[in-house]
Amino acid sequence: MQSAFYMGYFLLAMPAALLMRRVGYKAGFVTGLVLPRGNAADSPHLVPMVKEQITNTGVIPSVVSADDGYSSQEGLEEVLGLGVKVVSISGAKGKKIIEARQWKSQPYRQARAERSAIESLVFTLKEGFEFGEMVRRTHENVLAEMLEKMLAYNISQIIRVRKKLSELQEMQRAAA
User: Fold this and answer.
1) Which residues contact 130 (CB under 8 A, 6 or more apart)?
2) Is this structure's pTM higher than 0.70?
3) Exposed (0-12), middle (13-18) or buried (19+): which is 93, by Cβ within 10 Å?
4) DSSP string, 97-113
5) Residue-wise pLDDT tens digits, 113-149
């Protein structure tokens, strides 16, 4: 079961990545999942999450936006070193480690503004796919359950995006 499940995770990543390249990255796909042990601080996980996203999609994101919990000077510099152009960390801690000129610039303001879409995705995962409630126990089992829920969410997103693309093509045919 575990090997089939993880194979499904790997196989679904490819169609999701292809769709994301076609429709853009704002379609709301989950491209990585990190589940640290215990009640770990967020800041050490920023770089591994960005690296996982790059590995899973083959694309270096141009923008990374994170909440205040992920702020660390080392993490900021390392993510920029990966080739990311804008690393925006919202909140007072993020403002302290990002130069004032950058903080006020359009790309950084845009990144902070787009976090609301991310928060909407997180709400959808928590409520619609029950990410906030785990039935299983132990780290490995909780991770497996979260991956299953992530797969279900991504499959529903693929169906939604394909339907939207199909509707757009139909409208274009009707207009021609």
Assistant:
1) 149
2) no
3) middle
4) HS-HHHHHSHHHHHHHH
5) 877 666 676 677 777 777 767 777 787 887 788 788 8
